Amino acid sequence: QVHLVESGGGLVQAGGSLRLSCAASGGTFSSYSMGWFRQAPGKEREFVGIIARSYNIGYADSVKARFTISRDNAKNTVYLQMNSLKPEDTAVYYCAATRSVGGGITKLDSYEYWGQGTQVTVSS
Question: String of b and e for 4-27 (b: at least 16 CB within 10 Å)?
Fold first, then answer.
């Protein structure tokens, strides 16, 4: 059982930056691919990006060139650096872990474990 805890959310003005962290416990962190998702009010949860256990990285088009995912296996932590934030980035951000993304990296069902989420609010 893997336990994930996100942190680093908050209120920021448009154009600003935030760095989210997701600390994992209870499993072999290096064996998991780690995804980031977000859910805005009234919308479905959507894929933001992923860093595989191989360190391959993928992003949603909406965040590409603005967001950067990294991981530190020694600290069992994955990060989401968010720059040039826009009001439309406002959402609850979740990290998720999976040992296999055979169902597709953007699919919620591909991920075995989820954090509780952290709120990011971008004001205009």
Answer: bebebbeebeeeeebebbbbbeeb
For 53-104, the pLDDT digits (tens) are 999 999 999 999 999 999 999 999 999 999 999 999 999 999 999 998 777 8
The torsion angles phi and psi of 29, rounded to 5 degrees, stand at -55, -40
Region 35-58: mean pLDDT is 96
Cα–Cα distance, 22 to 52 (Å, whole number): 15
Question: What does the radius of gyration of the chain's CA atoms come to, in whole angstroms?
Answer: 13
Structure tokens at 93: 């951000």
User: Three-class SS string for the chain?
Assistant: CCEEEEECCEEEECCCCEEEEEEEECCCHHHCEEEEEEECCCCCCEEEEEECCCCCEEECCCCCCCEEEEEECCCCEEEEEECCCCHHHCEEEEEEEECCCCCCCCCHHHCCEECCCEEEEEEC
